[in-house]
Design goal:
By secondary structure, the chain is an all-beta fold. The protein is built from no helices and eleven strands. The strands form two sheets. Strands 2, 4, 5, 6, 9, 10 and 11 form a seven-stranded mixed sheet that branches. A four-stranded antiparallel sheet has the order 1-3-8-7, with no helix packed on it.
Length: about 110
């Protein structure tokens, strides 16, 4: 099982980014897929999850972020709009298959 995140970067407040999580060794449509984030000095927090077409979001990102998956590409996405400085963090892709698997993370920095 491998998860590889990409798409992070520096963006101005109000801007958008799309993160990708390319999965291998399993099928993303068969498991719950999650995006977490960890800001400096803070605990890792759940941002969004997708399972069997059902999506859930943290209150802090509801209405701004959208999680989705492309089964043909075996990839999960996180579309982030109206970004704020508080969204600055390392973003991680996660799934649980007998144990937790994590990607290496991708840095998102929201700053003017």
């Amino acid at each position: 099982v491998q998860l590889v995140e990409s798409g992070g970067g520096l963006v101005q407040p109000g801007g958008s980014l799309r993160l990708s999580c390319a999965a291998s060794g399993f099928t993303v449509s068969s498991y719950v897929m999650r995006w977490y984030r960890q800001a400096p000095g803070k605990q890792r927090e759940l941002v969004a999850a997708i399972s069997s077409g059902v999506t859930t979001y943290a209150d802090a990102v509801k209405g701004r972020f959208t999680i989705s998956r492309d089964n043909a590409k075996n990839t999960v996405y996180l579309q982030m709009n109206s970004l704020k400085s508080d969204d600055t963090a390392v973003y991680y892709c996660n799934t649980d298959i007998w144990r937790a698997y994590w990607g290496q993370g991708t840095q998102v920095t929201v700053s003017s």
